[in-house]
Amino acid sequence: MVHSDIRMDKNSVTDLVSEIHRLSKKIKRQVKFMEVCGTHTMTIARSGLRNLLPDNITLISGPGCPVCVVPNSYIDRAIAISNLDKTRILTFGDMFRVPSSVSSLEKQRSNGAKIDIVYSPLDGLELARAHTDETIVFLGVGFETTAPIVARVIKYAEKEKIKNFLVLSGHRLIPPAMEALVSSPGHNIDGFICPGHVSVVIGAEPYRIFAERYGIACVITGFEVCDILQSIIYLLEMISEIKEKSVYIQYSRCVNKDGNITARKTMYDVFEPVDSEWRGLGIIPLSGLAIKDKYSDFDAKKIPVNISSYREKKGCLCGMVLKGIISPFDCKLFGKQCTPENPVGPCMVSSEGACAAYYAYERR
């Protein structure tokens, strides 16, 4: 396990880019690195980083946007719950405009449903205390970064005996999705730019399998341009065998190899891994988090609702974008029928979505 970091200054970019070009000449083949974090996707697009790289290095976006990977079935269930009397839905802002099979939370609210945007699941407890005549349902969407916080709030609700606060868990785990990608036939990922925020919680160990079993280099990366450039250098050094293929911690100012043990304990006290559906990737074993029976009083999945068979929007290729098979430019709807003002798929809605990033910063 190697830790590294770099001081950010205006001269670093030129030096790092020069080193990337030098190393790329030694490899003499096309390489693809996948970032698995929506914040990385935005940094890469906003900075124009792709334009600085040699022609034989391609950066592709993976399933790193939590809102984007949630399937329509989850959103359809949330919408069905919002139609119930004396029920209030709470959601982070990114989920508000994501289109489902038939509607969106935004449209539901315009039709009279009680749907509020919140900044923390703790806001849900406050509303539950203030509206005891309503059932408050928080949409728990996110990766290992947010799941421990939601778990802690569920524990608070149990301690305070707040029975009208529920969570509809849509939490997902990143490493199983990464393994689903590299174990699929014909994948062409040479290295992972691993997510910084998730890794603060899970540490480095879950990524070791990719280096040891699949021969894929991994670098846990910070969110500045120089962080990403330095990580690309580490990946190139591992591919060219200058360094041993392993899991490197570039983002050492925040990440250690063990992660946050307390946060994981809280998460797994309340949640348990289950097979879960990901948009574009299908059912991935043990890739989601369900509320344990011990805390079933706070599980919104127990609410009986009728959900018609869900479907994807015709022509939407978000699933292929999330798998790194295509870029947003390859979708015929991109920038035409599908825009941030009128999104067809979630990748155009979320502030961490690849399509939104390309639309804002990389349109040709």
Automatic annotation (TrEMBL):
User: Keyword Ribosomal protein, does the record have it?
Assistant: no
Xref: InterPro entries:
Hyd_form_HypD, HypD_1, HypD_2_sf
Name one molecular function that GO assigns to this entry.
4 iron, 4 sulfur cluster binding
Highest taxon in the source lineage: Bacteria
Pfam family name, one: HypD
Assigned keywords, A-Z:
Iron, Metal-binding
GO terms, biological process = protein maturation
Q: Which family does the entry's similarity section mention?
A: Belongs to the HypD family.
Instruction: Tell me the protein's name.
Output: Hydrogenase expression/formation protein HypD
Q: Taxonomically, what lineage is the organism?
A: Bacteria, Bacteria division TA06
